[in-house]
Amino acid sequence: MTTVTSTHDRAGSAPEAAALHEIVEGVFAWVQPDGTWWINNAGAVSGPDGTIVVDTCATEVRTRRFLAAVGAATGDAPLTMAVNTHLHGDHTYGNSLLPSSTVLIGHEAMREGLLADPIIDGCPPVWQPVPDWGQVTRRVPSVVLRSDLTLFTGSRRVDLLHPGHPAHTTGDVVAWLPEERVLFTGDLIFHGVTPLVFMGSVEGAIASLGWLADFGADHVVPGHGPLIDGAALPGVLADVERYLQLVLRTARTGLEEGLTPFEAAQRCDLGEFAAWPDAERLVLNLHRAYADAAGRPFDLMAAIGDAVRYNGGPMASAV
Ligand SMILES: [Zn+2]
Fold it and tell me: Per the database record, which ranges form the Metallo-beta-lactamase domain (predicted)?
């Protein structure tokens, strides 16, 4: 595990490349290029009663930059509430850098998942360079939801909604501003980056795409990749769906032919999706599709080991 076959543009994905975008007055997206492993998007919604934060970042350095930018844009208004869209560390490890007074909210399954997550305690050498989270500690929500919850800052409304089934993970939540028609999707959308559904469900992720479309959003903040306007959303959702259908087809054929997920991945022609970063996620997604189709338990460490093998070495990280 010494050869790194996939590389990133180091300057293009450095912490300094991240920027705060004001989508509509007082509603912000923190977009971190290039959106690959551990490089997420986050956001903030300001209002008369303080700021509501949507996700944090993977590392201390990245989260401090994000929170400083939000403070500068909002006159250091208090961060009254924060929501985690799902459990993954790129969206949650910075939670402990929020003020202790910030009420942290997430799905019930998200809270359980972050409590059980071992990677914050020491990242295995399956990414290169091995991420250094900095001075962060595990902080989980003190308020959980199972289907929906509505937050207000003044009269500005933020609806937190769970799709009702596993998709990217088992505890996904979107943040929807019905007045401003802004949707923070978390990792239900990867934009121009290979989708990852190994801790959720391939079929559930496909079903969530129609659910996302039905919001009729004008502005969409994906979990990874550039912002999406309402007119471009159908095309982005169609791209993600075609990729996920390819995963399902590859798993079906592989099971019929008695192939392992790794063998099925090797035989799969990614075609139009080969240019997306993090192509090795195909292996992880196939492990999930196999487990669900065959009623087998999902083996996380076997899946990650196969992804590294498919990649020809540790997966590239750009934390
Ligand atoms: Zn995620």
Answer: 39-224
| Span from the CA of 257 to the centroid of ligand 1 (angstroms) | 31
Centre of ligand 1 to C-alpha 187, Å, is 5
Give ∠ CA 189-191-193 in degrees, rounded to 5: 105
Phi, psi of 94 (to 5 degrees): -80, 0
| Mean per-residue pLDDT, 184-204 | 98
pLDDT in tens, 84-128: 999 999 999 999 999 999 999 999 999 999 999 999 998 999 999
From ligand 1's centre to the CA of 75, what distance in Å?
Answer: 30
Rounded to two decimals, the pTM is: 0.96
The pLDDT of residue 12 = 84
Contact assessment for residue 213 and residue 234, using Cβ atoms and an 8 Å cutoff: yes
Angle at which helix 233-256 crosses helix 202-213, to 10 degrees, equals 160
Cα–ligand 1 centroid distance for 155 (angstroms):
30
- Give per-residue pLDDT as tens, 197-222: 999 999 999 999 999 999 999 999 99
Q: What angle do CA 148, 149, 154 make, to 5 degrees?
A: 150
Q: For residue 86, how far is its CA from the centre of ligand 1 (angstroms)?
A: 6
Cα-to-centroid distance, 49 and ligand 1 (Å): 29
Q: Is the pLDDT of residue 72 over 70?
A: yes
What does the CA dihedral 214, 233, 26, 87 come to, rounded to 10 degrees?
80
